[in-house]
Structure formats: structure tokens, C-alpha cells
Amino acid sequence: MSFIFNRETFEDNSFNEVLREKLMRALNLHDRTVGSSSGAMTTGTGAVECSGAAAAGQRPPRSKGGFSKVDILKSGIIVKKVEFPTIPKLEILDLDVSIQSKSLIKGICKVSCRDAMVQITTEIESNLLLLHVNSSPKFTTPKLISNDSFTVPITMTFDKLHLEAITNIFVKNTGVGISFNDVNLDFRLQCSIKLLQSSIEKRLKASMEEVFKDVLPSVIFNMSQRWFTHGETVVPTVDKSMVSSDTPVQPRMILDESDLSDLSPANMLRLSTLVSSRQTLCLNPTAVDTISTIPGCLERQNLHRFNLRFPSLYNYYSNKEQQGAHNNEKNRVEHLKLWGRSSSNPIPTRASFKVENTLPKEVLDSNSYDVRVITAIQTKMYERASNDVVLRRRKIKMRSRKPSKANKDAVSPAQNDSGTSSCSNVASELPHASLQANPQSDEIDPAPEGGPNAEDAYKEELEDSGLRAPQDFPALENVTPVLAQLPNQQRSRLGSPLSAGRPTPLLSPLDDSHWLLQKRDPQDLRTTLYSPIRNGRFYVMPQPQLDTKEASAFLLENGKRFGFVGLLNNHNLKWGNDPPPPYREVSITQ
Amino acid sequence: MSFDINWNKINEDSTINQRARAFLNEHLESLQLPSYVSNIKMTDFKLGTIPPRITLKQIDNPLDDFYEALRLEGASIGGRDTDVQFLMEVDYKGDMLIELSAELVLNYPSPNFMQLPVKLTISDIGIHSLCLVAYLQRQLFISFLCDVSDPALDNVESPLDSNGPAFLGSKAVERISLIRSIKIQTEIGPQDLSEGTILRSVGKLEQFLSDVFKNLLRKEAAWPSWINLDFNEDVSADVESSSSAEESLPHRDDAQDFSADARA
């Protein structure tokens, strides 16, 4: 028994009263609008049986098509009595929380409930002398006709209700799904009209399966949806489908003219390149350990490696990290020995996949770090990881009247915004860091109005152009701005006063990470997504405008459309060595 | 190790643990909880026998970011003579133990209709980070800069872990984990009743909780976020009253954070 029910609730009569009212309302609601969510009002584990039994009671007339119109029920259903003398048991047998998708909780529960009692009463039409005089010939008509309404009150008592069931419960943020397995239901029916008792009982038991398979889960789901939407009435999905089925479905054209016009020719070209790149007659296996085997395309399995190349503590301080890695390797070998394995066992180290953004201990001990560099890196990583998350900078007043309570003042949103912008300013204040991937930084911003507006506009432009990378592909977002920042003269400036005197590696996304350099990958990992121009392996298609302006300015001004322009690689067309293509503006006048 | 912490003193004094527990319990009671959580209590608290190692690495002028933040708040910045910033290496691999208990409540159809007791045991907390502590303009800023590599905390999993990293690729590298290792043990179900079973060690739930916890800390205290302790006297009574009126807000905010995290 995992859940504890409030004992008082069950000892108190008021709870039974509440249940009775809810049940009655539900039954009568159901009576009026057959087919709508039956018994949506009945709730709770306690009510499970009630609504089950009640719905079952309603079922036989409903299943006879059309019978519900001339319902034999002549009055509303009155629930006389509901009793829950014993506390139901609800026990969690297993629980599973999935982290990835929108919080989904799966549980297997055992429900058991006993000795419950429901008594309902209503009136039924039962004229045993009813004659269909209209359809019968005159000569057969008897003299005595009593075709008046003849209502008989009927009381049904379900007692010794006993339910045991194993249920699967799914909780999502949209509702609660439940399915019943292994239902064991037992009850005794006492009917005031003994004649009907066996018949009703038989029908009820026959319809139980449907109740637990269909009625109850949908009832609970609808109900939970109301909870999750905070009381907003949700239109039952059944109704929706009925409405939509009224209007004839128009056949929809796939890929009509307008759809095609949305695809930019540049995109189409890129897609076709992508497709054709996959077709190879090469007998050698495609290159390992390269970020892109296809020019300009980042493959899913290489995304991680691509991400690793962003400036971060582990590749910035890579020189020292190498030693650290060496030590780790030693440790690993010892680990392996502990596990009873020979040290030469080629188990792939995690290090090659799972890189933690840590400051190497050696760097810390040798004092060869710079706080400002670290802050810049961390700020940049923060910005890249969370675009929309507001910066948290709590202010706690220590001198307030109640010093014992830490009075947390949430920073107002406005301050938050400014805080965020301030921290992006940091990067621009540190020229050596040059982490600023935004085109906002002063040197390269051709539109002097600057500010966030310009940036937004720029982003919109990026989105307009078909070439924008998908959301989960954060790397490519930076491609164009980085390219824009690229000019060589800037690089020379990067030798900053802060790092003066010490030959620290440059902190710049443009530079190849030393970590990678030290790996000495035979395939030459430098795919230089960052620095196609510097690398000089590209032939930028000459365009008249390009000559007059700086590339960055060009991108910013009318960067409506970026196109993929072919590239020549100077590695004898061997795959695996191709740097990705430059993104460049296709000359389309606005 | 710059700070010599006489941890034995703490251990010898058994009242310290109790007092800390009492204080934390008091704080927990004052929290305004969402309606579906009740009775949150700290049932056990042990500081442990292993002290944190705190090393002072650098004393410097405060970073410009702090001044910038103050300036944006509209505070006038006075002389900078007394402003100072410490860079500290915090290394904690102790055996602190926290036991929390709470009850999840279903308030339908009647209030407090159904409860689910949950017990959490938190231990094995491992931190090795650089922490920036700046004091300027009578305000204290605390922010965790970055993690420091530590063989004891890196790659905690054994090399034989079958949950291969092959699909880790989707995740970008986190800038800081702050809490490098944490162990959360869960128990679901009432402790005292003998009937029925107690669901123990729900792995996924533990993972989920530790993620929520880590994310919360990362969001609140890791650079470029920070915690700002203001030692200034309140300027006027108005400010004070408004701040005390807002007192409940951050907690609710926290709860929303939590649920938002849970949904995310």
C-alpha cells in the first residue's frame, strides 16, 4: 500500500454524500445526452466502481440501437446511497520516469477496493398490457385496452462490490491515461423487481469488459484533461470527429506550385548535391574521424565531434589537458586491472566521446589561467546552450528586517534582460576573446544603428533564407557570422594585452583547437568550417559586389538568401578531406 | 589548501548537526509549497567527517561584469578601493548526508484525499569547482566559474558501463556541472506500515531528480549567473515592505521552475 488515503474522509459521511451527488449528476447527465462522455463527473478511485456499475447499467439500452429514444427510464436516476466503508488500496508496483520526452510517468498500480455499496432508484415503464393498436387489424382488438403509461419504481442495490485490478497509468502533461489489466470485479445485485434481477445481472456482467476497456479509461482521461487545463472544458474528441466528418474532406494536393516556390533553388541544389554525394563507387571505406565526409554536410553521428570544436575550457587549455588525459589513461589502465582485464584490452575510452568542460587541474596548479578568459568562455557557452533562458542573478538582501529568512528577490525581467545583454557585452569588451559570434560587435557591424534590433532583423533574415540550419543543429547558426568575422587583419589583433607575456593559445572559434591538432589525425580534422577564407583552400566565386565590400558587410546588408556555391578541393577529390562549403550570398536584389 | 578547517571540532560537537537540521527544517517549513506537496521535512542531516578543501587561488580586482550589473541596477558606484575579488578552488568529496521526506498529495475529490509519502536520501556529493567571490560596494557576489578536472569525479562510471556513449552526440557539452556526483536514493511508500511494499531505488526517478537539482544549481549559481548578497542598509521603508511582500514570490517561482523543469 503505497498511497495513504485520508482516513477521516472515509469515516466521514460527507465524503459518501459528495460521491453520491457527483454520481447522480453524472448519471442524469448521461441520461440526457447519450453518447457524450459518460459519467465524466464521477472521479477518484472510490468512484471507479460506481461509474463502472452505473455505466454498465446504462449500457444495455444503449447497445440496442435507437432504443434510447424511447427509453424505458421514466425519471431521473436517483442515487440513494453510496458507501465506502473500507479504504481502498492503491499500491505502486513499478514506476518509470522518462526524462527525454515531455515528462512522462509510467506506473503499474494495483487497485483494490472492497465492500462498497451503491443504491440507485428510478422508474421504468413496464406496461405489460401494451397493445400496438395502430398496426393490428380491428377485429383482433380486444375490448379492454390499457395503453396508458404505467411506471414502476425500481431500486437496484449493488453491494459487496469487490474490485481488484492491475492498472497501467501514464501521466503526461496533457492528461492521464489508464488501462486496466487483470480486472477482478465481483458484486451482488439486488433488484426490487425480482423478475428482472437475473436478466439485469447477466447484462451487466456481460458489459463489464467494455466498461473497463473503453468507458473508464476515456472517462478518466477526459477528467484529467480538465485538471491539466485548469478547468477549461475540453470538447470531447468524439464530437470533433463527428463535426469534421460532416463536411466532405477535400482532397489535398501535395506539392502544388506554391509549395515548390517555397523551396529556394539554392536549397534544391544543396539537397541534390547531398543525395548525389551519397552515391559512390568507391571501394575504400569512407574516411573515419572526419567531421564531414560529404562536403558541406554534417552527419548526425559527427555532430558531437563538431560541437567539441567550439571554444571551451577543455580545448582551450588543451596543451595541459593532454597530460591530464595521459594521467587518465594511466588510471584507466589501473581500473582495467582492477576489473581483471589486461591493460591492453582495447576498450574505447569514454574520453573520446564524453568530454567534460573542466579546467585541467594542472592549469590551475600552475597558475596559467586567466579568470577573464574563463568567464568569457563560460558566458559564451551559456549563450549558445540557452538562447531563451533568462539569466538568474538573485539578489538577497541581508539587512532586511528578518535576517533569518533569506529574502530572495527575484530579479525583475527587465533587469534580467539587461543583465543578459551586459554579459554579451563582456565578450565584445574582450577583444582577445573574440567569442562574439553575433554580428553585433562594432568592428564588423556595417549598420550603425546596431543594437538588438539589428541583430533580430538579421536573425529574421537568416530565417527567411531557406538555408537556416534546423534548431537542433546549433553549430551552423554560427557559420555565417563567424565567416563574417573572419578577416585576417582581425586575427592579428587577437594577440591581446591580457594574454601578453605568456604564449597562451588564442581563444577564438576561428582557430583550430589545439586538442584536435595534437591528435594528429591522419585525415586532417581541420575541416575548417570556421575559416574557409584563411585556409585558402576555397575559391570564392568572384562577384563584382564582393570586391567592393567586406564579405561580412555583404552578408549583413542583403543577406536575404545564402546559397551553396560549389567548391574545389585540392585533395584530388578524395572524400573525407573536403572542407564544408562556404555559405555565400547569392546575388538577389531585394 | 589555504583554509585550515578544523573539521574535527564540528564532528565532536554533536549539537551542530542537530542545530543545522533544525535550522534547515525551519527554513523548509517557511517555504510556500505547491498544493500537491506537503509536509516536507529533513529527517536526517549529517555534515560528515570529511571537510571541504578550499584553496584561495587569486586576489584581484572584481570583474567588470559585477560593476556593469550594478550600474544597470541604477546603483551609483563609489570608490573601488575596498573592492576585492577572491578566486577560490572548492573541492568537496565528503560524506554529507541529507534525508528528506515529503508527501505528494491528491486533493481530489476532497482535500487531502490521498497521499504518497516519498523519502529521499542524498549523499556522495562531489564538487570541485572554481568559485568567484567578489565584494564590492557592500555587496557580495558568489558565482561558480567552472569545474576543475578531477580524476575522482571525472568518468565516475566504470569503463565497463554498458550504457554506451554512442548516442551522447546529440548533447552539447555542458559548461559546468557544479555537482559532479550526487547520489539520490528514493523510497516511495509509507515507512511505518508493514503491509504492502515500499518501492525502493527508482533509478529513473533518481536520475530525474538529480538532473533537476543540478540544473537548478547551474541556473542559479553558475557563471554568468550569480548570487548577490546585498549588505546595504535598505534605503527606505518602502523598499523593505515591498521586498517582504514579495517574499513568498520567489518560492512559488521556484516551484514553477521545478514543474517547468519537470515538463521540459
Count of folded domains of chain B: 1
How does the helix and strand content of chain B classify structurally? alpha+beta
CATH topology of the domain at 2-32 and 67-229 in chain A: Bactericidal permeability-increasing protein, domain 1
| Total strands of chain A | 11
What's the N-to-C terminus distance of chain A? 70 Å
CA radius of gyration of chain B: 21 Å
Mean pLDDT of chain B: 76
In terms of quaternary structure, the protein is: heterodimer
Beta-strand percentage range of chain B: 25-35%
Give a written overview of the molecule.
The complex is a heterodimer of chains A (590) and B (264). Chain A has helices at 7-11, 13-32, 44-63, 194-228, 237-246, 257-262, 265-278, 303-307, 313-316, 318-338, 361-365, 371-385, 413-429, 451-464, 474-477, 479-484, 488-493, 514-519, 532-535, 544-548, 551-557, and strands spanning 4-5, 78-83, 89-98, 104-125, 151-171, 176-191, 358-359, 393-397, 407-409, 562-564, 583-585. Chain A is α+β, with helices and mostly antiparallel strands and 590 residues long. Chain A has a domain at 2-32 and 67-229: Super Roll (Bactericidal permeability-increasing protein, domain 1). In chain A, a hairpin with a 5-residue loop joins strand 3 and strand 4. Chain A is elongated and about 110 Å long. With 264 residues, chain B is of the alpha+beta class. Chain B has one domain. Helix content of chain B is 29%, strand content 32%. In chain B, strands 1, 2, 3, 4, 5, 6, 7, 8 and 9 form a 9-stranded antiparallel sheet that branches. In chain B, strand 5 and strand 6 form a beta hairpin. Chains A and B meet through strand 1, helix 2, helix 3, strand 3 and helix 8 of A and helix 2, strand 2, helix 3, strand 5 and strand 6 of B. Strand 1 of chain A pairs antiparallel with strand 5 of chain B. Chain B: Residues 1-232 form the SMP-LTD domain. Chain B: InterPro entries: Mdm12, MMM1_dom, SMP_LBD. Chain B: Residues 248-264 have a biased composition (Basic and acidic residues).
